[in-house]
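Morning!

As promised:
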Amino acid sequence: MQATIRVFVNGREMENPEAPPVQCNGRLYVPARQLLQRLGARVRVETARACVAVDPQTSKTTIVAGRREGRHGPLLAAAERVVEAAGGRMDWDAELGVFIAQRRETWVAKRSLAIDAGHGGRDTGSTTAAGLAEKDLNLAIAHRLQKLVQMAGGRAVLTRSRDHHRVMAERLRRVRSRGVDALISIHHNSHADTSLSGCEAYFFESDAGRRLAFCLQDEVAQELGLPDRGVREAGFDELRHGAIGAVCKLAFLSNPKDAAVVASPYYPLQAALALFRGWRRFCEGL
Ligand SMILES: [Zn+2]
């Protein structure tokens, strides 16, 4: 039996797809009308076997051919055709069974973001009782977040892109040399008191940084369903680079409930989606 394919559009899971996407001969088919509309395109004409889509950004008209499940079922068309017709970008993760479609986000596209995956190499950060290392979680989330920002038309650079140790001064040099608008640093918490649970965000000496931290914290707490421990000010080295910045500590790896959340195969994507939506909210408010 084929596992359910989860669909994420514009940074959120699509809760009521007209029809679940299906895989056929190695291609992915998605409900055409609904997805085109979510991505900002108009469906002008629809017949039994195709629809005519218009991308209002470019006025480009595309005939998207597909097929129906039953006479009155929704038109299913190849995912890449649908997304291309709307001028969007897509990512299909076959291993996880996740389809991601993203429209161009005007405000995100104007900004560039540095993403800092905390720790790396011999510096593992904290670990869960089951042995999941913070450095690996941070990096997996950073990669997902970079992709989401790029799909939305924005620029995103990583302070480290693989599992190696990089000192803070070197990270910050990268941030400064790339001329980014802001930095999001990804971390997890740990404490001897294993009852501590939830997410926190930090900023330092900057109103814009405070706003960024609030936008991120709000989305993360909602998405992960963990206690919201609030936004605080702290002079972390990550925040001493001159640009706007926030440090997000997403969960307590020392807490059994938090550790179960981060052990889900969907967790890096979930966390990245929340950070992406927070970044988008921050950009829209600038
Ligand atoms: Zn850390």
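The longest strand covers residues 60-68.

Hope this helps with the figure draft.
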